[in-house]
Design a protein that fits this description.
By secondary structure, the chain is of the alpha/beta class. It has 11 helices and 16 strands. It has helices at about 60-65, 70-75, 135-155, 170-175, 195-205, 215-225, 235-240, 260-265, 290-295, 315-325, 340-350; strands spanning about 15-20, 35-40, 45-55, 90-95, 110, 120-125, 130, 185-190, 210-215, 230, 245-250, 265-275, 300, 300-305, 330-335, 355-360. Strand 11, helix 8 (about 260-265) and strand 12 form a beta-alpha-beta unit. Helix 3 packs across helix 5 (about 195-205) and helix 3 (about 135-155) crosses helix 10 (about 315-325). Bound molecules: NADP nicotinamide-adenine-dinucleotide phosphate (NAP). NADP nicotinamide-adenine-dinucleotide phosphate binds near residues 232, 275, 278, 348 and 349. Keywords: NADP.
Length: about 375
């Protein structure tokens, strides 16, 4: 496994049971229980990871609550088929499934786990990458889903340095981890949130001038991240946003649902990337905005691009490099113990989490503590 750090190859015998955060029915954080669950087994193309840190991303909330209700068609109509929650993971490989050659026991990995709010999770190798030396567990865990989403959003903007022709984008973007966005003004809505705060960091590393939009409770935090902030909501929130036009790019992770409004904020040739927004209603909870964006495509030379994010090994490896060289730094709101996972989800929903929350589950194993496998 190139570029990643590897721990000792021997691990203690694995237990039969593990502690995990599970639910029997859909609902708020009150449905979560810490249970003793059987240890998962790594199937073909999978590894078993001892979880050290798990990130709390918004998708976990949707799976826990079964909202918008349209998602239940895929995850279970009456109750979630997968009872254990969690996705973002950073940890150590403790077993490899049939056919796996990409990772070995002892590798430090991060990415999307099958159910990571647990002492162990299985994970597909095509949703993982190695953690580069020097990158902290919580940074890796917190960026697995939110970071791959933010990185894809930044790349989809197709930014070039002011003065560069826009058709130089594909060549430039393919050669470097981030575009050269020097001199470009970019608006990020939900700038204090998980994806938003990471997009802000990446865009500033790319040289852009970043304006972060946030609601009043999160505005001061957004100010610590952005070049400039704008307060959303209230009587004049829309007018304050309009006063920012024209911007060269827009990453939408909260608020603004109207295509007309999005386009009206963009400069000629500008792009708005639609990531998502909370608070939507109906079967799809506002996700229809993502579905319709490609149909609208572009308006008057302004592009709307919907993002459906996937944690690929390539994106995760790029994120690992950005974390290692400091061009990405995840603002960690706080760490919660596994027993306090429900509190983390409650804080997320009640707007108390800025940046990312982490569930700290295991400690890094010390080589001296390990005995050879029986
Ligand atoms: N397209 C994809 O592939 C993809 C991938 C990841 C996430 N997403 C979606 O993108 C959005 C942002 O994700 P995230 O992880 O950044 O979420 P997040 O951290 O929970 O929230 C992002 C922002 O949404 C607003 N917000 C938070 N709680 C809210 C609530 N209960 N009601 C209304 N607004 C609320 C806040 O912004 P304000 O300051 O404006 O209030 C917050 O900063 C979510 O809708 C998520 O489901 C999509």
């Amino acid at each position: 496994m190139a570029g990643a750090s590897r721990g000792p190859a021997a691990v203690p015998p694995l237990p039969a049971l593990m502690r995990a955060v599970a639910q029997e029915r859909y609902g708020g954080p009150e449905v979560l229980r810490v249970i003793d669950a059987p240890l998962p087994e790594a199937g073909p193309g999978e590894v078993l990871v001892r979880v050290i840190a798990a990130g709390v991303d918004r998708g976990v909330w949707h799976l826990m609550t079964g909202t918008p209700v349209g998602v239940r068609l895929g995850i279970g109509l009456r109750a979630p088929r997968e009872r254990v929650r969690g996705r973002e993971v950073a940890g150590e490989v403790v077993a490899v499934g049939p056919g796996v050659t990409a990772f070995a026991i002892g590798d430090r990995v991060f990415g999307a786990g099958h159910a990571s709010f647990a002492e162990f999770t299985r994970a597909r190798v095509d949703r993982l990458a190695g953690i580069p030396a020097g990158v902290a567990w919580e940074q890796a865990a917190a960026s697995a889903t939110s970071g791959t989403t933010a990185l894809q959003a930044v790349r989809l903007l197709g930014l070039t340095a002011a003065g560069d022709p826009a058709d130089s984008v594909p060549a430039a973007a393919s050669k470097s981890l981030l575009p050269d966005a020097a001199g470009r003004r970019v608006l990020v809505t939900g700038a204090a949130g998980g994806v938003g705060s990471l997009a802000v960091h990446l865009l500033r590393s790319a040289g852009a001038h970043v304006i972060g939009a946030a609601s009043p409770a999160r505005l001061e935090f957004a100010r610590t991240l952005c070049d400039e902030v704008v307060e959303t909501g209230g009587e004049y929130g829309e007018a304050r946003l309009r006063a920012l036009a024209p911007v060269d790019g827009l990453v939408s992770t909260s608020g603004i649902r109207s295509y007309r409004m999005l386009c009206s904020l963009l400069a000629d040739g500008g792009t708005a990337v639609l990531v998502g927004a909370e608070g939507g209603r109906g079967l799809l909870g506002g996700f229809e905005r993502q579905l319709l964006a490609p149909l609208l495509g572009s308006r008057d030379g302004r592009r709307l691009r919907a993002l459906t994010s996937v944690e690929t090994p390539e994106l995760l490896a790029d994120l690992g490099r950005l974390l290692a060289d400091g061009r990405l730094r995840v603002p960690i709101h706080g760490e919660y113990a596994l027993d306090a996972t429900a509190d983390a989800l409650r804080d997320l929903q009640e707007g108390r989490v800025t940046g990312k929350a982490i569930i700290r589950i295991g400690a890094e194993a010390d080589a001296a503590d390990r005995s050879p496998r029986a």
